[in-house]
Amino acid sequence: MFCPRYDAGQCRSCQWLPKEYVTQLADKQARIEHLLTDIPVAEWRPPVPSAQRRFRNKAKMVVSGSVERPILGIVNTEGEGVDLIDCPLYPDTFAPVFRQLLPFIAKAGLTPYHIARRKGELKYLLLTESTQGGMMLRFVLRSDKKLAQLKKVLPELQQCLPQLTVISVNIQPVHMAIMEGEQEIMLSDASALAESFNHIPLWIRPQSFFQTNPEVAAKLYLTAREWTQGLKLDTLWDLFCGVGGFGLHCARAETQLTGIEISAEAIACAQDSATKLGLKNTQFRALDATHYALNETSAPDLLLVNPPRRGIGQELCEFIVSVKPAAILYSSCNPETLAKDITRLQGYRLERVQLFDLFPHTAHSEVLSLLIRE
Ligand SMILES: C[S@@+](CC[C@H](N)C(=O)[O-])C[C@H]1O[C@@H](n2cnc3c(N)ncnc32)[C@H](O)[C@@H]1O
């Protein structure tokens, strides 16, 4: 993929861009095989590639520059804004939306936040698009000082950009590299964006994790369903379930599905999807996954886990080994912690492993693995 910003040395977000795409995939696969050297793997499935450009459904734009001339993109190490409106990772639909947003920043008086001076209001613009059409725009502001002014220009903004079906403001008062704060103020009537992967309805909401590479994520969920099709599935736990993508793909009509996730907003999405699918035996709860598990005494038939980069950790692994679910489906965005966790899961054989390239041009990998109790 050619990127003029990378070539000019202005953006290095895609660290692996100079590598041929086939080499990127081969290097990721080799790294995973190396990390799992000491663990016998019954079957390695070939890596699932991604489109090399326009694969992201989400842009996180740092806003810099001035209120009359805002710059959307990143801030480099010298503190200068770099315009990434034309970043080739985003769909073609993003750049026109960002360009049309620029005058509204001035109209609403949203002075870009200046990191060194700790002054200004607008920190980030977060834009997400559904494959079903429709977009979600979030303004991350330092305070609610300019909220009234933003609300005033909102009707004009919505008229200009009707594709923005969900619009909100996130208040992030802390001077830190944290992207979002706890307070979310909805500006649009709709609070969620409808998405659908493999005919499974999903929801994208503020403050709720959603996969950023929809094409590969849809294949990941579908593969999870394929790999679990032959298994007994009366009970299924989907830990770190987010909006429920894995559990909702794998559950059958009779399955008792329990989804556990720390974000209440994501749980609301998962619940809505289950209702839309007419699934009756489901419960989705906003809880710490390890805390939930440690309060249970028996295991489900299938335990599905998709944790953040830190992995599931010692405590949850010990619980799993003690209650002995028949099968574990572990999807990981960090092969290092995946390998560590698998060595802790004594009594299981590693049946199948496959790399899903959710994050092209970076060193990051998503790995799906199926473990069966011996
Ligand atoms: C990699 S995401 C996976 C989400 C989901 N499975 C999917 O396919 O989109 C990890 C999820 O773990 C959640 N999470 C983080 N810490 C958690 C915890 N202690 N307990 C439960 N969920 C947690 C995050 O909010 C996030 O939704």
Automatic annotation (TrEMBL):
Residues binding S-adenosyl-L-methionine, per UniProt: 211, 240, 261, 306
GO function terms (MF aspect): 4 iron, 4 sulfur cluster binding; metal ion binding; rRNA (uridine-C5-)-methyltransferase activity
Domain of life: Bacteria
Keyword terms: 4Fe-4S, Iron, Iron-sulfur, Metal-binding, Methyltransferase, rRNA processing, S-adenosyl-L-methionine, Transferase
E.C. no: 2.1.1.189
Presence of keyword rRNA processing: yes
Gene Ontology BP, a term: rRNA base methylation
SUPFAM superfamilies: S-adenosyl-L-methionine-dependent methyltransferases (SSF53335)
InterPro entries registered for this protein in UniProt: 23SrRNA_MeTrfase_RlmC, MeTrfase_TrmA_AS, SAM-dependent_MTases_sf, U5_MeTrfase_fam
Pfam family, one: tRNA_U5-meth_tr
The UniProt record lists the keyword Iron: yes
Active site: 333 (nucleophile), 333
Enzyme kind, highest EC tier: transferase
Family note: Belongs to the class I-like SAM-binding methyltransferase superfamily. RNA M5U methyltransferase family.
PANTHER family given in the database record: RNA M5U METHYLTRANSFERASE, TRNA (URACIL(54)-C(5))-METHYLTRANSFERASE
Name of the protein in question: 23S rRNA (uracil(747)-C(5))-methyltransferase RlmC
